[in-house]
Amino acid sequence: MTGTDIAVTGLGLVTPAGIGTAASWAGVRAGRPAATFDPALGGNPVRISCRVPDWDPDALLGARRAHRLDRFTQFALVAAREAITDARLDPATWDGARVGVVLGCADGGPGTVEAQHRVLVEHAADRVSPLLLPMQLPNMLAGQTALEFGATGPNLVVATACASGTTAIGTARDLLLLDRCDVVLTGGSEAMITPLVMAGFARMGTLSRRTDDPAAASRPFDADRDGFVAGEGAGVLVLERSADARARGARTRARVAGYGASADAHHITSPHPDGAGLESAMRAALADAGCLPSDIGHVNAHGTATPLNDLAEARVIHRVLADPLVTSTKGVTGHLLGAAGAVEAAFTVLSLEEQTVPPTANLTTPDPACAVKVATTATTARFDLALSNSMGFGGQNAVLALATP
Questions:
Q1: Euclidean distance between CA atoms 151 and 119, whole angstroms
Q2: What does the pLDDT look like over 240-293, one tens digit per residue?
Q3: 123 included as an active-site residue
Q4: Which is catalytic among the residues 50, 162, 181, 291?
């Protein structure tokens, strides 16, 4: 390995598979699809989604605090709280100036925007909430997290569409390598399951139309895949330099060994058919980690279950790597959009810890054109290095190389 080791010392998850890391991992490991019929999407051509189950922000954050936050920020605060506790850090005692927050999201708070637009249309401008902008602005994801935990170091939100969470983690790693921070709360959060957003995705033809059987709709790498199912949630990781983590006696759950990013410069939504941009990002992550393609034992694929994405990604994995065991956890969680990369990075950390690759739910007829080895059951395997891939609209690509401690 090259460079300074960066340790993952804490994980926090809020996903359609469950609230908390243990519940989320249990659902993914069991391959239990979270997609259901969504009554809030009435009137839409696609009315299925992967919602966070039993979400009660008043109980988790307090009613006064929760009502001043959009759903995407609520998710992030709960995930960050778990991650900080998992890392055995105490915000009351840390040097806030050395604690950064780098989070990703694709859209901010469309739920708040849509609700307040209805107020404007149905009532009057003076009925619109003064909290509209503080609730919906994307940067408030990091701003509210810093406010919650007294983190006064570098604070930013990155937006690279569905690669946002991965880009955020890569950026956080760089801040640590540059000695701008000692601790960074990083990851992503998203809450885009709204009538308007889902109508837009449906009009683009990106969503699965398997509305008669929601649980079977998200089918990564399956010959019968027809689009993604939208999900929501958050993933937050605590990153520190490994030497600092050791000095305070912290547990290192995994290491961020490498990072690569690129742009396809090909199409506004479709990936390059040969995955040229993703290949560049994967090779950059491998080089940054100082490892060979044959060292990678597992890939947590972007695997959205859209026909073009899965084919392009499979081509790159087959071309670049030896014979890793691949999974797409989106078969369970759906596509968490800007939070997807962060949540999947956390799942990759858990795979490394348990030496277990979770199944790709709903993969019943593997697409012969996707010539990669995809796990269909929870599979025990020995590997010390894994990749977590992300791709996004606009040709955004980001890849993390994660390693055992």
A1: 35
A2: 999 999 999 999 999 999 999 999 999 998 989 889 999 999 999 999 999 999
A3: no
A4: 162
* Listed residue (19, 2, 9) closest to 235, CA to CA: 19
Q: Give the CB-side neighbour count of residue 142, counting CA atoms within 13 A.
A: 25
* Cα dihedral value 348, 354, 356, 357, nearest 10: -10
Query: How far apart (Å, rounded) are the C-alpha atoms in residues 16 and 132?
Result: 26
Identify the CA nearest to 220 among candidates 387, 41, 389: 389
Which parts of 146-269 are beta strand (E)? Answer: 155-158, 183-190, 233-241, 254-263
SS3 letters for 10-51? EEEEEECCEECHHHHHHHHHHCCCCCEECHHHCCCCCCEEEC
Is 50 part of the annotated catalytic residue set? no
Whether 370 is catalytic: no
Which parts of 205-295 fold into alpha helices (H)? 242-247, 276-289
Which amino acid type is present at position 342?
A
- Residues 212/48, Cβ–Cβ less than 8 Å: no
Alpha helices (H) in 238-358, listed in sequence order: 242-247, 276-289, 307-320, 330-333, 340-354
* Residue range 118-163, pLDDT digits in tens: 999 999 999 999 999 999 999 999 999 999 999 999 999 999 999 9
Catalytic residue, candidates 50, 105, 272, 335 = 335
- The active-site residue, picked from 291, 298, 302, 370, is 302
Helical spans, DSSP H, in 57-216: 57-61, 63-66, 71-86, 110-122, 132-136, 140-149, 164-177, 195-204
